[in-house]
Amino acid sequence: MSFLDYAPAPESRAILSLRDNYGLFIDGEFVDGRGEPFQTISPATEERIAMIANANAADVDAAVAAARRAYDRTWSKMSGRDRGKYLFRIARLVQERARELAVAESLDNGKPIKESRDVDVPLVAAWFFYYAGWADKLDHAGLGANPRSLGVAAQVIPWNFPLLMLAWKIAPALAAGNTVVLKPAETTPLTALIFAEILQQAELPAGVVNIITGAGDTGAALVSHDGVDKVAFTGSTGVGRAIAKQVAGTDKKVTLELGGKAANIVFDDAPIDQAIEGIVNGIFFNQGHVCCAGSRLLVQENIHDEVVERLKLRLSTLRLGDPLDKNTDIGAINSKEQLERIRTLSDIGVAEGAERWTAPCDIPENGFWFAPTIFTGVQTSSRIAREEIFGPVLSVLTFRTPAEAIAKANNTPYGLSAGIWTDKGSRILAVADQLRAGVIWANTFNRFDPSSPFGGYKESGYGREGGRHGLAAYLAPAPIGQSSTGRAAIAGAASTAAIEADASAPAKRSRAAKPARTLQNRSAKAATKGSKR
Amino acid sequence: MSRLAVPKTYKLYIGGAFPRSESGRTYEVLAADGSFLANAALASRKDARDAVVAARAAVSGWSGATAYNRGQVLYRIAELLEGRRAQFVAEIEEAEGVTRAAASAQVDEAIDRWVWYAGWADKFAQVVGNANPVAGPYFNISVPEPTGVVAVVVPQDSSLLGFVSAVAPALVAGNSVVAIASERFPLSAISLAEVLATSDVPKGVVNVLTGSPAEIAPWLASHADVNAIDLVGAGALDWISLEIDAADTLKRVLRPESGADAAAPALGRIAAFTETKTVWHTKSLR
Question: What DSSP string runs through A142-198?
Answer without folding.
Answer: SS-SS-EE-SEEEEE--SSSHHHHHHHHHHHHHHHT-EEEEE--TT--HHHHHHHHH
